[in-house]
TrEMBL record:
UniProt cross-references to SMART domains, sorted A to Z: REC
UniProt source species: Gracilimonas mengyeensis
Protein name as catalogued: Response regulator receiver domain-containing protein
Alphabetized UniProt keyword annotations: Phosphoprotein
Annotated ranges, domain Response regulatory: 4-119
Modified residues (4-aspartylphosphate): D52
Gene Ontology terms describing biological process: phosphorelay signal transduction system
């Protein structure tokens, strides 16, 4: 099933350029004004909206303001396109919930960057019912900052943004991110409320749960790691009272590959990273779904950046 992108613009050449750019990966729907877009949205579910900012009648910003008040459509990510971005317009669009800006000049001089932005926005669009208002706000802020950092191209900075953001969303006592390569693991990020470090933090592969995770290739949730088959740094966890743990493997798959495989990790993809989150407060199923999906889907961004920076 192809992901659907709705393009709203009164300029026909823009539709032509975006159709040619996106057609191999996405189903592209076209609207030449906001009312046409509303009619399409009333009949079709779309995954992303690309909207011009300047149009006759209702402008892109006015459309964005209205769609955010529509309960059925407010969660659709919107990227605003413009020829002449200003700080004031960008701030207003972001305040209204725009995912980001795309300068139209990129359609001519950096088409791959446009594709990267669109892919990133769709893979980070994680909608989970049951989140409280604070978690939803933090999740949206994390996604926006993650995209902003990833567009800059830094793998290490993006790892830190994701790890810190996850720790804030679900109030972690401990968070760790490891890079896995050629049977070696490198700790890239560690957040610990206590001074003491886990015994195998720099040697994560010595943990029995590492083999379990590598063999099963699936994220896990444990609300009692002390006596279960899966759980990292058990002695450390007991001492600190951290009974709840989420572990999520990351795989060697970029955004395009993940989207083309309907957000499922291909069976042949190697494990290239691992995130472990611990806290004393028990995890709900809703929190587990949010965290695991954010990590898995954002992991595709990290892998692309890692390959690019090698």
């Amino acid at each position: 099933m192809a992901y659907k992108v709705l393009v709203i613009d009164d300029d026909e050449p823009i539709h032509y350029m975006l159709k040619n750019l996106l057609k191999d990966e996405f189903a592209v729907l076209n609207a030449h004004n906001v009312q046409e877009a509303i009619d399409i949205l009333s009949e079709t579910t779309v995954n992303l909206i690309l909207s011009d900012i300047h149009m006759p009648g209702i402008s892109g910003l006015e459309f964005l303001e209205s769609i955010r008040l529509d309960e059925k459509k407010k969660s659709i990510p919107v990227l605003i396109m413009t020829n002449l971005p200003t700080v004031e317009k960008e701030k207003k669009a972001l305040d209204l919930g725009a995912a980001d800006f795309i300068k139209k000049e990129l359609l001519n001089n950096n088409r791959e960057k446009v594709l990267d932005i669109i892919r990133m926005k769709i893979v980070t669009d994680v909608q989970v019912s049951g989140l409280d208002e604070d978690q939803t706000k933090k999740k949206d802020q994390l996604v926006m900052k993650l995209m902003e950092t990833a567009i800059g191209g830094s793998f290490s900075d993006t790892v830190e943004v994701l790890s810190k953001g996850l720790a804030e969303i679900v109030n972690m006592n401990y968070a760790g991110f490891w890079m896995i390569k050629d049977d070696e693991a490198e700790l890239l990020y560690s957040k610990n409320d206590e001074e003491e470090r886990p015994a195998n933090e720099d040697n994560i592969m010595a943990e029995s749960s590492f083999d379990y995770l590598k063999d099963n290739r699936e994220e896990y949730l444990s609300n009692h790691v002390f006596n279960e088959d899966v759980g990292f740094f058990v002695d450390f966890s007991k001492k600190q009272g951290l009974s709840a743990e989420i572990g999520v493997p990351l795989f060697a798959v970029n955004e395009r590959e993940l989207l083309m495989n309907n957000m499922k990790v291909p069976a042949k993809a190697d494990m290239f990273g691992l995130i472990i989150l611990k806290r004393s407060v028990l995890f709900s199923s809703t929190e587990f779904e949010l965290v695991s999906r954010l990590i898995k889907q954002s992991g595709s961004i990290l892998y692309r950046l890692y390959k690019k920076n090698k």
